[in-house]
Amino acid sequence: MRKVIVGNHAVSWGVKLARAEVIAAYPITPQTQIVEELSEMCASGELKARFIKVESEHSAMAACVGASATGARAFTASSSQGLALMHEMLHWAGSGRLPIVMADVNRALGPGWNIWTDQTDSLAQRDTGWIQLYCETNQEVLDTTIMAFRLAEQVDLPVMVVLDAFFLSHTAEPVDIPDQELVDRFLPPRRARYKLDVDDPHSYGALVRPDDYMEMRWHLQDAMHDAVARFDGVETEWATLVGRSYGAVESYRTEDADIALVTSGTITSTARHVIDQHRENGEKIGLVKIKMFRPFPTDALRLALAGIDRVAVLDRNFSPGQGGIFAAELRSALYDLPAEDRPAIYGYVLGLGGRDVTPAVIDGIIDHVRMPGIPARADLWVGVKA
Amino acid sequence: MSAGCSLLWTGAEEDDRVFDLHDWEGAEPRWCPGCGDLSVLTAMQRLAVAEQFVPETTVFVSGIGCSSRFPHYMKAYGFHGIHGRALPVATGVKLSRPELTVFVAMGDGDCTSIGAAHWLHMIRYNIDVTALLMDNNIYGLTKKQSSPTTPQGFASNTAPRGSWLPALDPIQATLGVTNASFVAQTAEWVPAHLYATLRAAYHHKGFSFVRILQRCPQYTDSIYKEAVRKPSIVELLVHENGLTVPELDRLYTNQRRHDPRDLDEARRLAEASDVIRLGIFFQDESRPRYDLIRALPQRTVEEKIRLMNEELDRYAV
């Protein structure tokens, strides 16, 4: 079935098809439509899930933690301040190894109240033990939501599906909605390896002393490593059913390229269009899209960027005192390469708080990055008013 | 000591300024036509003129929601804060600058949902702050999701079949908390009562909690429709120790004498009933106040200079 739906509803459809069992949520712009639609699906009986209308985002994640610990498939959605308020419980979900799925609609953080898109909210949660998958289209949002449950339950880690405010959340696009029967084949009911079970009593949250704590964290790191390969497997399976896959990292027209843009989210679509125009002029320029931010796909990126001289990373986010977050992560991932194979990384911070990133802006970056002799930096700010 | 080299601020200078309504008008309100928030803003601006608040010593703190736009529209100091955290922010402001007049504007989401823990503790701290709970029984800014005060059975986008549970009653809840000192309820559609209640709350020494019943013309227009049309289903709590609003006597004939010093009776009156009760349920200025208990001792200018000189003398060569 093909429907024209907004990105928020693409999430709702994904969650419905994944047969989530517990949904706990608190409204926040621009996420609210996701859970409103799910609430409607629950009320009409289309989705047999418990919908819990909680009193804050902290409680929403706490309720998901509790539900997931009983073996249920749990989902929530949030944005910006709401995600920040969840922070403590995000650690709990990650280190508790609970395969919760949430959607985060990227929105700028206050103060400087702003409801528009900016990735700093989700990237600020990078150390909480969540897998993070960024999306470019509404179709990708729906597919990723379904795959997220599969991946989460394979590695016992929570997964955050990330989409841009308004450019995806409130923009309608045609989306192919797979049949329930097909999704059921791909995603069987959750069989929790560990859960609260009266017949097999265990507890969560005991005191762990220094002689065991590090092992717990090593197991978490090990599961993150595992998730890189598992994600490829999940995508392959999904592709055999629906014919679509995205890759943790996608290379677009990078063959023989000297220069590559690195993007994530909806800036990617604009960049593809710009790359096409430059390729028509015979310029050797390509694009690498990062879908998976945690675990960071180091090997895939090294492969994708091999042989490229200069890389321009477009960051709609920033870490104060450092610069663009993808740029910093990418530098770190490529540092161990032999110097002759290592591209120079130019980090461009742009589009914060929903400022438009137009083809002209990206053209300007391309003009800048190929200027001879300019030093590589991680925090070149684009279009800041004097 | 000449004014030019004064080391110590000795309080307001001789002030002959007079502030009128225009002086209190901040940004142009961007609430929907017919929103109850507009009525509260008008009452507050009227109070500011009547009591001649001084803009630079008046602070409005809010959280997030429609009502939390309030500080933008009062030309005074404002803090448009974080969802649910208006009360702790106000606590910080008041404890560090006790001479300021501090108001808090919250919606039912801010106060009774995401920030409910702070509400309980603020009542107990009993700090001299006036809090307005602008309660329209719905999350309006995010477009019609149930709040804790949404009536049972009322349908919303997060409860399409209607709210499952009885609504939380903020007056009952506040009266139940240890050390409550001023608890009142008023309605935005009775401007004279709203104004009189805000004035009483402002004059109360301690934490004043005012729940304002409000209509949201977009989403909860129906909830108080009958009460707006039929004053008989509104019962005014009147008492010389509390509130009397003589100009309402002809229209609002359903009145009950209630002494706001009587906590037991206040709690009985707060129980659900067929009438909507407006007035001061409870007031007691003798309750301990954290801002006074923890305040630095008040000193005169002479005392401060003497202490400073004593301190400096310790380092004399």
Q: Topology of this protein?
A:
The complex is a heterodimer of chains A (386) and B (317).
Chain A: E1 2-6, H1 7-17, E2 22-25, H2 32-44, E3 50-53, H3 57-69, E4 74-78, H4 80-85, H5 87-95, E5 101-106, H6 120-123, E6 131-134, H7 138-155, E7 159-164, E8 172-176, H8 180-186, H9 210-242, E9 249-252, E10 259-263, H10 267-280, E11 285-290, E12 292-294, H11 298-304, E13 310-315, H12 325-334, E14 344-349, H13 359-369, E15 380-381
Parallel strand pairs in A: 2-3, 2-4, 4-5, 5-7, 6-7, 10-11, 10-13, 13-14, 14-15
Antiparallel strand pairs in A: 1-8, 6-12, 9-11
Helix pairs in contact in A: 1-2, 1-7, 3-5, 7-9
Chain B: H1 36-50, E1 58-62, H2 70-73, E2 77-80, H3 86-96, E3 101-107, H4 108-114, H5 116-125, E4 130-135, H6 170-175, E5 182-187, H7 191-203, E6 208-213, H8 225-229, E7 234-238, E8 255-257, H9 263-270, E9 276-283, H10 290-293, H11 301-313
Parallel strand pairs in B: 1-2, 1-3, 3-4, 4-6, 5-6, 7-8, 7-9
Antiparallel strand pairs in B: 5-9
Helix pairs in contact in B: 1-7, 4-5
Keywords summarizing the entry:
heterodimer; A: 386 residues; alpha/beta; Rossmann fold; 2 domains; 7-stranded mixed sheet; 6-stranded mixed sheet; 40% helix; globular; B: 317 residues; 9-stranded mixed sheet; 9 strands; 30% helix; 16% strand; disordered N terminus
